[in-house]
Amino acid sequence: MKWFKWDFVRKTTFYITPNYPDASTKNYKFSLFRIAAYTLIYTFISWLVLIFILSVSPLKDFLFVLDNQEFIEQRSKINELQTKVELLTGQLQKIASTNERMKYALKLANTDSISSSNPLYDTLKKTINKKLPVGGNIYSVFKELLNIIYQSNSKSIFLEPVTGIITQRFNSEKGHLGIDYGVPSGTPVYASAGGMVIFADYTYENGYMIIINHDNGYTTLYKHCSSVLKKQRDYVRQGELIALSGNSGKNTTGPHLHFEIWLNGKPINPEEILIK
After folding, report:
1. Is residue 195 part of a domain?
2. What's the number of domains the chain is made of?
3. What 3-state class would DSSP assign to 203?
């Protein structure tokens, strides 16, 4: 090529003249090939030193993380743990919210009056004080007759929520505040009396449970269900299907329905007022 002259490149030299005020001036002459050779040798030695340092030190774990299979596995485990933590956090928040609503439901069931500023006031005013209508059948007439006869004692009639054998009876001294019906999971559970559902959700200790507020200061609780078929603020009639029995919650030893009746904030023996 005309524009590239090999002799010119070969004869090209560089002069380095240091400026030392106290010494005599010297010139250092370097050819272009010598500079290129020094550069290659310096680069090669630098790479050798770098490779040696990376091979004997943990620095390689920080510089080549993308090629480190162990780091990739650890990062995958960290992501998995983070997902589990987020899931557990959500579950804890849901449990805390459920517990707060259950406390509020029990507090509401134990009060004889409610403030007009309470959001449930209008609903409770329309439903809790609403009497069950008397139909034109023998059962309704018989139930009304029993209400009149039983009025001096309980003022309400409660039917058994399920048909089954009682496997554990009421014993407040040992902390068993209700009765247990030994029934298979999935057995229909019916409202023992008509009223307002003030709680229907899952709890850690009692599993799926429903709390119903009734007239005259009564409250019924249905625990360890496999599923609930009603929601909070629903009004249910006596004998209406509300849940399916099960074996949910921590405090359970097998498929059954735990049933409680409370009167004015205190548990009572359901067998004393239940009608089969």
Report:
1. yes
2. 2
3. strand
